[in-house]
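Convert to structure. Protein one:
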Amino acid sequence: MIMTNVTTMNGFFLMGFSEIRELQVLHALLFLVLYLLALTGNLIIIIITTVDQHLQAPMYYFLKHLSLLDLSFISVTVPQFIDISLINDGYISHEQCVLQVFFFTALAWAEVAILTVMSYDRYAAICFPLHYEVIMNPSKCQWAVIAVWLSGSISGILYTSATFSITFCKPKIIHQFFCDIPQLLKLSCSNDYLGVIGVAAFMSVMALICFTSIVISYIHIFSTVLRMPSAEGRSKAFSTCLPHLFVVSFFLSTGTFEFLRTTSDSPTAFDLMISIFYTVIPPSLNPIIYSLRNEAMKEACRKLLLGGQFTRKKAFLSSC
């Protein structure tokens, strides 16, 4: 089902994954399951890292904000897609699309930033354990999180202002399940999209700096861990580093692949699947990944799910 006057309408038309009604409902249900999984998992992490005395270190403080970002990130696109799939109407207003682009780009960059901060935290904890509480004191942790959210907001403003300064003169059909910037650029009939290219180039340089910082941190981390005489010490270090490394690798690799590949006027099922892998899958899997190898997280989850009591005492980051 395609609207007849998609060129002159104020909003946009999201094509989604299929025009077959039965498949639209099936996709809506699958996305609903993933959304509920992400919602539950990230809320559990936010709760236990707030109330459990054993999870007040900087690592868990940053993990709480990562979960908050994941929860917000998946809420930008998935509820809207579920709604348009169930009512069989892909129309999205201009204002909704603007907000979606802003929050999507802001939260995506903030996620890159918080993952970079988390890698530095692991580097400080493992390579400089005696000075860790000085390096990552509560004040510095709070300023790091403020910088993460602020940089995300700046990224969102830059992308949104550049994207919607474009004159859209082609049929306003977006071959995606959300307002995707590459798809929006294809609706331009002139070169007024160069501002978006400039913003993307600037943010790519910043992302490369973050990626380089993460790689350098992990080179030092693994070098230090492999020199540890205690097998228990190595296991404990890996249990906190490997989940973070997996999340970083998955998020950045899928995002980079999506950014570098050329967009098509008639996207294939593979193109749409890739978009799911960097928009929906990471927020759903991150809580599971961070809980698998971390005994403190698993114990806190058991307390929460089985009705155990949390006792709060003064801890390193209790003031945060």
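Protein two, convert as well:
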Amino acid sequence: MFKELEAGTVQVLTVDREVDFGYFLTNGEEDVLLHHSQVEGEIEIEDEVKVFLYHDKEVRLTATMNIPKVQIGSYAWTEVVDVNSGLGVFVDIGLMKDILVSADDLPIYEDLWPAPGDKLYMSLRGDKNGRLYGKLATENIIGQITRRASKEMLKATVQGRVYRLLKVGTFFLSEQGYRCFVHENERRQEPRLGEQVEGRVIDVKEDGTLNVSFLPLKQDKMGEDADIITGYMDSRGGAMPLWDKSLPEEIKDKLGLSKASFKRAMGKLMKEGRVYQEEGWTYYKK
């Protein structure tokens, strides 16, 4: 019984005949073209060849002996090569034609979409017309490739790729295969899906997953926050309408800092004798 020719699958077919531009392969009922450019090695009539099936740019079913790692039901990392606003992003899986990951499967806000060079862990899916699209890995799929982290990972630095974005935080898979979570309070800004990130481990959970922070250590962060404050003051001629008694919302709106971070950085600047406060304002000392 023959297996129906389906885009996104790997099949073993028989070389039926040669034409000027390639070979026609058959499963006994249907034919598909294997272009000369997609042949690896030498083949002859009646040989059985292993090929991957997909649609070319003219939406014709075609075959290649260059088997991609990403297939229907098979996952791998793919690189984003182009972004089309409103449509989605295109990834390179090793074919002559790039594969679309639809906007429907990407974050609502396009500034969180992957950029060229970012990578996505995905497989393929076909629509009712057999056209192939990228299919992002779910949490269950990610769970199948992760490993448990030991307590020795505490305070370690980890790098990896973002695979899931939620309002509460960012999920990424580390290069070592650890599942990592970054709470929204442990990041200054939300990274893109597929972006390469780096952070430090702040907790090793009982299930072997890691809690990670994108923020620097408190003493380093204090210096960075102080730079934010002085940068803002510089933009206003050396003064700002904020001081220790300002409301948290005012501080967050103008500087992007929490009140606690603001007060620590302000204490550092005052201790160094660089600023002083008066009637709701902060000024540089002359």
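The helical segments are 139-145, 218-235, 248-255, 259-271. The domain at 146-213 is CATH 2.40.50.140 (OB fold (Dihydrolipoamide Acetyltransferase, E2P)).
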